[in-house]
């Protein structure tokens, strides 16, 4: 079930990324963080790296109804904190 949910998040992120501006904000780069965001597990180094690279895009992602609930979730905040990435104020 968790794998199905992770795949759903991945699909949503990839589809929604089509509406993101240019290559700078590419939500599909956050797919590596699907498990920590869905389950609260410890994020990998690649997840943290992706979060750092995409941190300027978080508010844009949070405004997109396709995945706002994932971006604004308690697990997403926990993942950001664990990675040492500031939680944005949008």
TrEMBL record:
GO terms for molecular function: lipid binding. PANTHER family: BIFUNCTIONAL INHIBITOR/LIPID-TRANSFER PROTEIN/SEED STORAGE 2S ALBUMIN SUPERFAMILY PROTEIN, LIPID-TRANSFER PROTEIN 2G, PUTATIVE, EXPRESSED-RELATED. Belongs to the plant LTP family. B11E subfamily. GO terms for biological process: lipid transport. It comes from Lolium multiflorum (Italian ryegrass). Pfam families: Tryp_alpha_amyl. Residues 1-22 form the signal peptide. Residues 25-90 form the Bifunctional inhibitor/plant lipid transfer protein/seed storage helical domain. Keywords: Lipid-binding, Signal, Transport. InterPro entries: Bifun_inhib/LTP/seed_sf, Bifunc_inhib/LTP/seed_store, nsLTP2. This is Bifunctional inhibitor/plant lipid transfer protein/seed storage helical domain-containing protein. The lineage of its organism: Eukaryota, Viridiplantae, Streptophyta, Embryophyta, Tracheophyta.
């Amino acid at each position: 079930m968790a794998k199905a949910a992770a795949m759903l998040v991945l699909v949503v992120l990839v589809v929604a990324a089509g509406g993101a501006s240019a290559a700078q904000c590419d939500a599909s780069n956050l797919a590596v963080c699907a498990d920590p965001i869905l389950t609260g597990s410890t994020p990998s180094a690649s997840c943290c790296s992706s979060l750092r690279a995409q941190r300027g895009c978080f508010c844009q992602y949070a405004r997109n109804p396709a995945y706002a609930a994932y971006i604004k979730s308690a697990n997403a905040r926990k993942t950001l904190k664990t990675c040492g990435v500031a939680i944005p104020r949008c």
